[in-house]
Amino acid sequence: MFIQSIPNTVHQSCLQRWVDEKQRGNISRKVLCPQCKAEYIVVFPSMGAFVALLDALEEITHRISPFIAGGVLLGSIYWIAITYGAVTVMQVVGHREGLEMMESADPLVLLVLLPTIPVTLISAKMYNWEDSVLLFLRKYCAKIPALAYILPFGNVEGDRGAIISGQQNNTNQNGNSHLSPTRIFCSALLLPTISTIIGKIFFRSVQNNLHRTILGGLTYITIKGALKIYHKQMLYIRHSSRKILDYTESNLKLYRSAMASSATDAVSSTNDSEQVI
């Protein structure tokens, strides 16, 4: 039986369109056959030395553009850090004193030290000193009755409390804290401003701007840390005192009534706030 062979032909326009789709505007990209992986022979007519020079310049520009963009971005961040450092110095020390200090300093020293101010603030904010204090209080001060009026320790079972405490330690060591990078960034950079405001409000008698700002910062950090320690301890007691009830009709009714009352309280508080507004 004779079978007539059909020649393997393809439309030139279809082939050109397929090559354009594969190259995606980059004429130097190789085009391979999807079946045998052989490279297609794509030939371009010679357009002269000037066009070849323009092609080379276009390729060089395409390759170095990411590095230029990265350099511009790093330079912008660097000068923003310098500006923030200079503003922080004038805010903490005083506008006139800060200007005099920076004018009398070596410019090279300013270019090195001023960007370290925001970096130092962010790095210090990443260390949660409240967790260390809280662990110390749980370990050594839980047996002191007088501290129970300040920081409640709760009636937590030993095994359950040890498990929860171990989980929290692993979370802190692994860096899986609830603080987001944006929160750390904002709270760290706003610390000088908040310290200055608190210093002007509560320490007006202090004449030195630097001392007043330091006192305001220490007050803010202490109060915020104490509230954070108290909140974490209450969450620890709530989590470690958790109970799982039997799935009975009485417990189910009790659970549903508690959820309904919580929802009612939330709605009533929302309505009260809307009336106040």
TrEMBL record:
Domain of life per record: Eukaryota
Transmembrane annotation, as ranges: 38-57, 63-87, 108-127, 182-203
InterPro entries for this protein: Znf_RING/FYVE/PHD
Topological type in the membrane: Multi-pass membrane protein
One Gene Ontology CC term in the entry: membrane
Keyword Transmembrane helix carried by entry: yes
Record keywords: Membrane, Transmembrane, Transmembrane helix
Subcellular location per the Swiss-Prot or TrEMBL entry: Membrane
Descriptive protein name: E3 ubiquitin-protein ligase MARCH5
Provenance organism: Euphydryas editha
